[in-house]
Specification:
The chain is mostly helical. It has one domain (3-90). The protein contains three helices and no strands. It has helices at residues 3-6, 17-27, 31-90. Helix 2 runs antiparallel to helix 3 (31-90). The longest helix has 60 residues, at 31-90. The radius of gyration is 27 Å and the shape is rod-shaped. The protein starts with a helix and ends with a helix. The relative contact order is 0.08.
């Protein structure tokens, strides 16, 4: 069978090079062995894609957390300055 129909090559940016190579190696096997390995291969591909999505979500959450911390630090600094100014006025 053709490797493009059973094992789609979605590009190096989507799958690690090793998985693309593995798909080509599986496609070169006899049909009986291909069908045995195809399900396992697709589960591995799904797992890799899921892990990449999770990593992207974690990276996005960390970026948002860093931004939130910067805003909080700014607010804290401004609040302290306002407190100090009010203390001076009261004295």
């Amino acid at each position: 069978m053709n490797s493009n129909t059973r094992f789609p090559d979605s590009g190096e940016h989507d799958l690690p090079r090793e998985l693309v190579d593995l798909a080509r190696a599986i496609a070169a096997l006899p049909d009986e062995q291909q069908t045995e390995l195809e399900g396992v291969y697709m589960r591995v591909v799904d797992s890799v894609k899921r892990r990449r999505r999770i990593l992207a979500l974690v990276q996005e959450a960390l970026a948002q957390l860093r931004l939130d911390i910067k805003y909080l630090m700014f607010d804290l600094e401004v609040t302290r300055k306002e407190r100090d100014e009010l203390k001076e006025r009261l004295e």
